[in-house]
Amino acid sequence: MPRASLKPSLWVGASSFDSRCAGSLRWLGDSVQAGSIVDYDTRVIPVTRARRRISDNRQALRASIANSGAVMSNRAVEPYQFVSFRRVLDEAWGASEERSVTLVVDVTTLTRIHVLAFAEWLSEHPESWSRVVVAYTPARGYGFSNDVDLVREQYIDLVFAPIGPFSERAAAEAEGRASRCIAILGHEGVRARLGVSVVTCNVGMAVVVGSKEDADAVQLARQQNATLLEDIESGVMGDWTAMFVYQQDLMTVAIGVRSFVGKTARSDERLVIVPLGPKLVCLQSALVALDSAKSALWVSCPIPAAYAINASFGALPTVFARVTGE
Hints:
Elements: E1 9-14, H1 23-28, E2 32-39, E3 44-45, H2 47-64, E4 71-76, H3 82-99, E5 102-106, H4 112-124, E6 132-136, E7 141-142, H5 146-152, E8 155-163, H6 167-172, E9 179-185, H7 189-197, E10 201-210, H8 217-224, H9 226-234, E11 239-246, H10 250-264, E12 270-276, H11 279-293, E13 297-304, E14 307-308, E15 312-313, E16 319-321
Parallel strand pairs: 1-2, 1-5, 2-4, 3-14, 5-6, 9-10, 9-12, 10-11, 12-13
Antiparallel strand pairs: 6-16, 7-15, 8-13
């Protein structure tokens, strides 16, 4: 999208141990009039290095807009709670309307639960679609050392909850219902298998995501999700299909998700998303699923015991995009 259309803007994003958190602000710079830096607590190892890295990155966030005179507020939210991040979005949208500027939401270092909360918020505010832009800075690569793999194998909880229309009623009627599943797959294969395994689901679609800038990304996603993909190919999973997409091709993602929801729609089944691929694709998929199903969308997302500070490295150019349910 033409980046000139992003100026002036109001910015929302999260501080993190990952330096990619400042990617979009470095580009937007002086055009940002105001914004909210979201802070949340998660365990990152090694702890001392992580704290130092987070502090440095917070300074980098503010340095990116130092010459603009922008007022940046810090907002503490729960890492795995939908409602607390929705409050941040409500306030930011109100401020952007008052100023008549673009609202840029950087999803790079938000948690996956925050990303799904953002999809829910967008589904309830279609009037915002023309003035909300999503920013995402892809990693150049992902670490697979013994330390990283050890952290990835440990999970302390799992979020399994409905969002969107009739979510309260859906929660009350959940017990014993069969499900259809949309699994967004990236480099977290163990976590994805766990997210899928808790869902009683014989009908599903796996979306394996790569990158146009990284020729190895699709192969990496295939390798990390090999067991799940082999089960789909052999028919062990039941009526499951797999599609391979680039994270930049949001239209292809939207068409695939809408087609799956339309072909498999049944009023007596839950629709579940396992959002463990690139966050831009998770956001687009969830928003289209909410719009297509016209009912609650369930989220299945395992919570790690800790994150490894070297889980990713480097940064590709920041992507700015509009996502809609259309």
